[in-house]
Amino acid sequence: MPADKPILVIGYGNDLRQDDAVGPRLAQTVAQWHLPGVLARAVQQLTPDLAADLAHAQAAVFVDAAASPELDAVEVSPLQPTRAIRGLAHTSDPAALLAFTRLSFGACPPAWWVKIPAVQLGYGEDLSAESQTHLDDALGQVYRLIGRLQSARAEPPSAAALPAQPQSNLDRPSTQDPHSPHSPPPTPAHTAQTALELDFTDDAKPKTDGLERWRQDRDRALAATAEKLGLPLGRNVEVWLHDGVRLRGKLELCDLELFTDTLPRSRIGLLIDNVPFTLGDLESCVRLD
Q1: pLDDT tens, 95-139?
Q2: How high does pLDDT run on average in the chain?
């Protein structure tokens, strides 16, 4: 594998929403393994800014929490780019990001999607016991997948050839075994589509200004959402909450959610200096800049 073509592991999710943090936590753990030729990124959401890293990767492994009653075990599957891209300011679909990478840079790497079952997605920084167990299983699967990719240096294997679920802690690195050579110390714990829409197709000509177009559309959507809510999003503010708490800092949408039509107004999440609250908690808001 060329030294300048790493295997890119991207764990994404909100580190303030309990089990949604399993993706970033896995990426943080992989980074502490210090495996040669492996680059791990822990992010809150997938954005076009990641396209440059993807375009120069040997392979990509996306890791996310999946709150589905039909998923009761870690799932690993090959991933192909979509034919169209919509809502790229924040997407939970890595296939759309792969398509954007190919259209912007002319190439995208072979990729896999690791889905980790999530049980609790309320506000908080602790994983549920179930998700902690699934995280340990996912680490084993990712570790073995990385080994296969480093050995093969070829096209992605078929779904049948993917690493099997580890049967014991002996054949996988564990976050709970302090004597494991691959086990780093525990890391602290750390989702809605947007109204943005960028529509590309496979026959579209790759555009080098794709990231700039996305940033412009994101800024327009944020401004439109701020006007709709009547709030100075992205500005320094002082707010009072109904319980008497006062906060000062930059006012942001929690989860970077720009698409708010699916939520009751009172439940729209806001954030100041990593302190989450809802629009229903807000008593007053004064812009300071």
Answers
A1: 988 988 888 888 889 999 999 998 888 888 889 999 899 999 999
A2: 75
For position 54, what pLDDT does the model report? 93
d(CA 147, CA 137): 16
User: Is the distance from CB of 61 to CB of 7 less than 8 angstroms?
Assistant: yes
Alpha helices in 45-186 (DSSP H): 51-55, 94-105, 129-152
Q: Give SS3 for 203.
A: coil
The arrangement of secondary structure in 230-287, i.e. its CATH architecture, is: Roll (2.30)
User: Whole-model pTM?
Assistant: 0.59
Q: Where are the domains of the chain?
A: 7-171, 230-287
The H-assigned helical ranges of 34-175 are: 51-55, 94-105, 129-152
Q: What is the pLDDT of residue 150?
A: 86
Residue 36, classified by CB atoms within 10 Å of its CB into exposed (0-12), middle (13-18) or buried (19+), is exposed
Take residue 34 and report the two structure tokens written for it. Answer: 């210090």
With beta carbons less than 8 A apart as the criterion, state whether 92 and 46 touch: yes
pLDDT in tens, 237-270: 999 988 888 899 988 876 544 444 555 677 777 8
Query: Rounded to an integer, what distance in angstroms lies between the CA atom of residue 26 and that of residue 66?
Result: 14
Report the top-level CATH class of 7-171: alpha beta
